[in-house]
Specification:
33% of the residues lie in helices and 16% in strands. With 268 residues, it is α/β, with parallel strands linked by helices. It has one domain: Rossmann fold (3-Layer(aba) Sandwich). Helix 1 crosses helix 2. Bound molecules: 2-amino-2-deoxy-6-O-phosphono-alpha-D-glucopyranose.
């Protein structure tokens, strides 16, 4: 697991966007061989998406041959609900770039049969040939996608019940009322994320410091599902000093030292 510690959210986001753009460009995708990108929602990726739009506007990256799979969606929210992840993705990324609508995949939280929808979603990822790079965030309890503490580390896409901590954290998008946050969501599993060729997590701010410590320095545990990335073959955690605040001094020194060149890499 690589841990790339930037000074702040802006630098961490810019680095992450450039990293993704570089991966897409190096892959040199085509209609027959698209790049398959997994995407998250939440506050963490907002500036990454802003940077990606900027890179697109500067003609440094194109999404024409990119197929996307989002991590999750609230059960019961239609695509045009302002708090749905469908809506979020249009607002922050899709409508600003050249992605084809047929290349966008997000679980349908309004499907008649949610279990069937989850099964179909897994099949679709499989049919696309798997995910090349899965970008993710991390919840303050160490969850990845909506894989709350106690989730199976080999789980696949399924309906998950959100825990209280997550509903309180996400209440800021629902008139600050945790009661308005849907109780369940469709979420890719930890196993689904682990199958990706590369996983990149953007983790910033001191509300994530405890979870980041658990994820990087604790053992692999279903109580912090992001810790599973310790056994992924290519996992990168991009964080800022605030999120790294509870890591040991020598852990921070170690990663800052070995990632010196990566951190300094400003050019596209
Ligand atoms: C939600 C999402 C996760 C996200 C997490 C953190 O629970 N399902 O994918 O990583 O929130 O959100 P934020 O980035 O807003 O802190």
């Amino acid at each position: 697991m690589r841990v790339i510690i930037h000074e702040n959210y802006t630098d961490a986001s810019a680095w992450t966007a450039r990293h993704i753009a570089r991966r897409i460009n190096t892959f040199n995708p085509s209609a027959e061989r698209p790049f398959v990108l997994g995407l998250p929602t939440g506050s963490s990726p907002v500036a990454v998406y802003r940077e990606m739009v900027q890179l697109f506007n500067e003609k440094k990256v194109s999404f024409r041959h990119v197929v996307t799979f989002n991590m999750d969606e609230y059960a019961g929210l239609p695509a045009d609900h302002p708090q749905s992840y469908h809506f979020f993705m249009q607002q922050h990324l899709f409508r600003h770039v050249d992605i084809s609508p047929g290349h966008i995949n997000i679980p349908d939280g309004t499907a008649d049969n949610l279990d069937e929808e989850c099964r179909r979603y897994e099949e679709k990822i499989h049919a696309a040939g798997g995910i090349h790079l899965f970008l993710g965030g991390m919840g303050s309890d160490g969850h990845i996608a909506f894989n709350e503490p106690g989730s199976s580390l080999s789980s696949r896409t399924r309906v998950k019940t959100l825990c209280e901590e997550t509903r309180i954290a996400n209440a800021r998008f629902f008139e600050n009322d945790p009661g308005l946050v849907p109780e369940t969501a469709l979420s890719v599993g930890v196993g689904t994320v682990m199958d990706a060729d590369e996983v990149v997590l953007i983790v910033t701010g001191n509300t994530k410091a405890q979870a980041l410590r658990q994820c990087v320095e604790g053992g692999v545990s279903h109580m912090c599902t992001a810790s599973m990335l310790q056994v992924h073959k290519q996992a990168v955690i991009v964080c800022d000093d605030a999120a790294a605040d509870k890591l040991k001094v020598r852990t921070v020194r170690y990663f800052k030292d070995i990632e010196r060149e990566a951190i300094a890499m400003k050019e596209f």
